[in-house]
Specification:
The complex is a heterodimer of chains A (585) and B (190).
Chain A (H helix, E strand, L loop, with lengths): L9 E7 L6 E6 L6 H11 L6 E9 L2 E7 L2 H10 L6 E7 L26 H7 L6 H19 L9 H5 L11 H11 L6 H8 L9 H22 L9 H11 L16 H16 L9 H12 L2 H15 L8 H17 L1 H9 L9 H5 L8 H13 L17 H18 L7 H9 L16 H6 L17 H13 L1 H6 L3 H9 L7 H22 L5 H4 L1 H7 L4 H13 L7
Parallel strand pairs in A: 1-5
Antiparallel strand pairs in A: 1-2, 3-4, 3-5
Helix pairs in contact in A: 6-16, 8-10, 8-12, 9-10, 10-11, 10-12, 11-12, 13-14, 13-20, 18-23, 20-23
Chain B lengths: L4 E9 L5 H10 L12 E10 L2 E10 L6 H8 L4 E7 L3 H5 L1 H11 L5 E7 L11 H11 L2 E4 L8 H17 L18
Parallel strand pairs in B: 1-3, 1-4, 4-5, 5-6
Antiparallel strand pairs in B: 2-3
Classes of the chains: A alpha+beta (585), B alpha/beta (190).
Keywords (chain A): GTPase activation
Pfam families (chain A): RabGAP-TBC
GO molecular function, one term (chain A): GTPase activator activity
Chain lengths: 585, 190
Amino acid sequence: MSSVGGIDAVRVKVALEENPNDIRRFVIDPNITTFADLYKWIQRAFYIKRNLEISHRLSCGNSLLNFTITSDKDLQEAVVATVNSPYLELSIHVTDETVVPNESEDWIVLDGYDIPMIKDIRSFGNRLALPIASALRKRVENTLYQITSAFIDTSRKSPLGESDWLAHFDDEGRLINPQELWVIVFNWGVEPTLRKDVWKHLLNVFPPDLTEIDREKYLLMKSKVYWQIRASWKREDQLPKTEPLRDMVWKDVRRTDRTYPYFDVPDEHQRLTSLFNILVTYAILNPDVSYAQGMSDLAAPLLVVMEDEAVTFTCFSTLMARCKKHFLPDGKAMSLKFDHLTLLVQKFDPELYKYLLKVEADDMFFCYRWLVLDLKREFQFDDALNIMEAIWSSLLPPPPKDAPQSPSGETFNTANKLCNHSSAVLRSEGYNSLPYSYQSLVNANNDENFSDEDEYAQLNINDFGGKLELVSLPDPYHLGDGNPFTLFLCLAILILHRERVFSEQDYNSLASSFDKKVRKHDAEKVLSKARQLFSQYLRHCEIVDNNEFVSLQKPKEKVKEKKNDSWFDDNSCEIVSSSGQEIQC
Amino acid sequence: MSYAYLFKYIIIGDTGVGKSCLLLQFTDKRFQPVHDLTIGVEFGARMITIDSKQIKLQIWDTAGQESFRSITRSYYRGAAGALLVYDITRRDTFNHLTTWLEDARQHSSSNMVIMLIGNKSDLEARREVKREEGESFAREHGLIFMETSAKTAANVEEAFIDTAKEIYKKIQEGVFDINNEVLFENWFLC
């Protein structure tokens, strides 16, 4: 069968014509699956020993068409015709004897529901020792390997595209295995045309497991609520109450991203009014944080992408659920981030850290804007969208409301995700410790920008034991208050500009030189460097606690067991001391 | 470039009064009608000459609305001069001066020279605060006063340089403790 361009995996749903509720779902790689393979698999899936007729069911407007599949060519055409559908829907008619399925477990591969999870692959391998033709097993393994490698493909260069995206919805439009998608987004971004859909999921706008119809209803409901609240503060008798707030917001809206074409419009333009309405409504609904400068910077990209005031408001609210801490007067979240960034510099580039110490910039206050705005202002607007996506994709959707929370709330989720996608991918690749997705990332990003000789490219534990006071880093649940990647973006900028830092004689000129780089940083370089550093950090976490992510899988116990993230410290000590270095803990 | 003194300034005042525009006009000699709102603090520097001595001005341009107070306090550390800015076309920005002044006095050296600036003097038609009111407020609180326009550059040089002159005068008079490293980070004649 010739190659079916660009399609790596096709989800197949097969129903018995005689009993449409009897369904099997599985995945094929159209590039290697022949009609004979498909025929054989379906026979086995339904325990049918005799002849079949396979037909492709294709919705065309309101009518349903059936095309009989009898050859590789037919199959290929069916795959191509379904490229925009969640499934290749097949119907089978048994022309002979049918064997009723029994409850035994001797069929593993094709009786599962939905796309095979990466984490299932190893167990699949073990269980497959049951009587199944080895050729079939090999073929299926190949198919599964190809599917999984789509998520860890080091040679992949393209952002998340429509086919990847659509393949991750079930027949009712439920998003399946979003983590796999977020790995792609983290590494390669999102096609701009898909952002409107993808961002809503990245930002956790929807409760989990909603069907497409339910999501539409949910968004509609949210929008209705928004319009009602908006109408209530816009009432004549209510307006005086919000005058100072509205003045403040308007002052900032009219100077937010006005050089970007979308906002390069007269002050009276609807786009500015929308941004204003969103921020005022948010402030009224969230009196604890109200409005603070910087929020307009965060809301503007959402409006540009969503192009809908109410939907933008919903997205902004979920984004702010995480970011509002940046704006609280107690400054706790910001203090923590400054501290952690200092630690990272200390750990990853001791020389740079020493210099910052010398010019009294080790408090990292000059990175304030970077941290408050998740670096949105440090890049050209369009590049900032890539940066934001990368940050969001490194976070995990919040757990259901009744799920237990770690002491630091969201941090639990982040690490959970790291754990999920890295350890899962790892195992599928036979790695025991390193997060393969990140390792491949390092390889993928080991391009012309960076050489292996970079003195900071390798995290050398011995260096820290011998020359410097031992630095302990918080685990990924706690680093950066549960958003570690933003810190690595900051670290990447600092390291990429370390020569510039060394050339500045004092704090002021150092800070001033970074201010001059506003909107001028190279997003690709920074992202690439940040991913590389992040992967080193994760790998180091693994070295420290190499028991297959035990620490990551049991964050709650860890937190209870050891305060001050001492696990890193303790284990670093072990490693360093085993190399015979004198260390002080 | 070598310099005899290093003075740190801080620019404070309500949001949107033109603090960043004043700095840009002073350091880059240009005006940007729509300026990004400042998050946290932004930094500028320029060399000036007083009494044939090179003086480097380090200028910290702060956000009008600061949600993180602990960082604000660090702004004042070591500041020898402050530019307290209001907008002559917005009465509320003038009304808030007392609060800003209290904040400045609380977090800075008592010797810090404060220049009160009524900005946007080019918008005479929209004036809400009379010049005399500014003068009177300054007199009452022991500040230097000037009306400026970051747009036309009127009095911008003077505002920054006169503040430096006042600091310099205080050094000559021995009012400032020159051993106080907080105020003068560089005390070498080069």
